[in-house]
Automatic annotation (TrEMBL):
<dbReference type="InterPro" id="IPR052107">
    <property type="entry name" value="HEAT6"/>
</dbReference>
<dbReference type="InterPro" id="IPR011989">
    <property type="entry name" value="ARM-like"/>
</dbReference>
<dbReference type="InterPro" id="IPR016024">
    <property type="entry name" value="ARM-type_fold"/>
</dbReference>
<protein>
    <recommendedName>
        <fullName>DUF4042 domain-containing protein</fullName>
    </recommendedName>
</protein>
Length: 505
């Protein structure tokens, strides 16, 4: 119960903090099994509580939390404690790292050293041939996850280079599939600022190893291949790799080849990776000097048809796959525009994918469809009028039926991308009608939150634009607006003034 959370948090904090400080003062071996049992359960409950959004350490202060996290790091990294306790504490520390990375960051070196020691142990043989992972192996996995949460921090380019150059590379060749998987998952946290400080040769070697684990020839499990696929999606979105065209192309080819798999787990990762890479390339071409360089541009153009074909096939899968695939379709539209290239047969097939996903997809798929629709509308100067009309029909229908904020805001943003001069005859009325339905929904809900006010502003601005750019000369539009005048005038003075002018005319 949310209203009890702060009180429970304070109680658990005090109890757990006392238990930890007492156990740290002892040698680990001298702590009774009963005390360790309490410690394990308290650590688990406490970290779960703090990982919940909206629950904070009010009244306890950062200093107390830092002492607590310090104790947890000590237990995780000190083999004087029983392995079971260390494992539970490492799981709790990982939750803290995810929720409060800045407070865990001072213990990066301690955890890093522990992982290095774990990797050097000769008995860390992994789970091959049916062997269950040993506890130390699981502790190492959690410690790597703790460190991975440090990678996006502002200080990472200075502090986390050793993790990338040593732990990642050593972990990639570790016998343990558990450790390899943890390292592959950590790669998804890499950012360009940190990657710029990593030795170029080691970064390129990392790509090569990840390509190997992603491939079918590696005999890796679907789980490892799926993690490798996501890792490639992250690596190919790092700016340093734009200067290594051959390595980038090797990675991109490996991702595309994964399209031959019918594993749903792998397809989820594949759709995410394709969307991540295309989004990165789109951003580079739109906002970073407008160019990838001649060689890289030609590489992307060469592979774009294969990416488009694979993405449209993924858009026909379940919603976990579809949501990223349809968004990627939008990114491909954007790339075609900025790279001034055309993919034969893509536009019509892509529109069919968008329309199908709008009808059958869940809300996440629908708002990603709306993003893709907006990207299509930006290209609509050269698009078939029938395709424009079909998407307009679907988007405006969705606006009348959905109550989801993100779906509605993405739908309105999509419509805003289409020049009013390109609206098919009579379609300004449909857009205005759907916008009024959104405003009616917000009015009934007495919109007060920031996001609802933002949505109201989006709808109002597009409605005004439609009125000024053609709607005021359309009898059906004028009749619709006048019929709703009384409450529409309460939205804003601008709308009120516009409607009064229309009525006067």
């Amino acid at each position: 119960e949310p209203q009890l959370a702060p009180e429970m948090f304070g109680f658990l904090f005090q109890k757990f903090h006392g238990l930890v400080e007492r156990s740290v003062q002892q040698s680990g071996r001298e702590t009774s099994s009963e005390e360790f049992s309490v410690l394990q359960n308290a650590a688990n409950c406490f970290s779960l509580l703090i990982s919940k959004k909206g629950v904070s350490s009010q009244g306890n202060g950062d200093e107390a939390l830092q002492r607590l996290i310090s104790a947890m790091a000590t237990i995780t990294c000190n083999d004087a404690y029983p392995s079971g306790v260390r494992l539970d504490t490492s799981i709790s520390l990982q939750r803290f790292a995810k929720a409060l990375p800045g407070l865990v960051a001072p213990h990066t070196h301690e955890v890093y050293s522990a992982v290095k020691n774990f990797l050097r142990q000769q008995d860390l043989e992994g789970s091959e041939a049916g062997k269950k992972p040993v506890l130390d192996e699981k502790i190492c996995q959690q410690a790597i996850r703790v460190l991975s949460e440090m990678l996006p921090l502002p200080q990472a380019p200075k502090d986390m280079v050793p993790f990338c150059e040593e732990i990642m590379l050593e972990g990639m060749v570790c016998k343990s599939s558990l450790i390899r998987s943890a390292v592959l998952q950590s790669i998804t946290h890499l950012k360009s600022g940190l990657a710029e400080n990593v030795d170029a040769g080691k970064l390129e070697f990392l790509v090569t190893k990840v390509c190997y684990y992603a491939g079918a020839d590696s005999s890796s499990s679907i789980g490892i291949r799926s993690s490798a696929c996501r890792a490639l999606g992250a690596l190919l979105s790092l700016e340093p790799l734009l200067r290594a065209t051959n390595v980038f192309e090797q990675g991109l080819s490996s991702v595309i080849q994964l399209g031959s798999s019918d594993s749903g787990t792998l397809q989820v990762s594949l759709a995410w990776s394709l969307a991540n890479v295309c989004d990165f390339l789109r951003e580079q071409t739109q906002h970073k000097n407008g160019s990838l360089g001649h060689e890289m541009t030609q590489t992307v153009i060469r592979h774009l048809p294969s990416i488009a074909s694979l993405t449209m096939r993924l858009a026909e899968c379940n919603d976990k796959i579809k949501c990223n695939a349809v968004r990627c379709i939008g990114y491909i539209f954007d790339l075609c525009a900025t790279l001034e290239t055309d993919i034969k047969g893509f536009t019509g097939q892509a529109v069919d994918c968008i329309l199908t996903a709008l009808r059958r997809g869940n809300t996440k798929s629908q708002w990603n469809c709306c993003y893709a629709a907006g990207s299509f509308f930006k290209l609509s100067v050269s698009a078939d009028a029938e395709l424009i009309s079909r998407i307009l029909t679907s988007v405006t229908s969705l606006m009348k039926s959905s109550v989801n904020y993100k779906v509605l805001s993405h739908a309105i943003s999509a419509l805003s991308q289409l020049e009013r001069s390109l609206y098919p005859p009579g379609r300004v009325f449909d857009v205005c009608d759907s916008l009024i339905q959104v405003l009616l929904l917000l009015d009934r809900q007495k919109a007060s939150s920031v996001k609802e006010e933002d949505l109201k502003e989006l709808a109002t601005q597009l409605l005004m634009a439609c009125i000024e750019e053609g709607g005021k000369d359309d009898g059906k539009v004028v009749e619709l607006l006048v019929s709703e005048k009384d409450w529409l005038c309460t939205i804003s003075e601008e709308v009120s003034g516009c409607l009064k002018r229309l009525e006067g005319n």
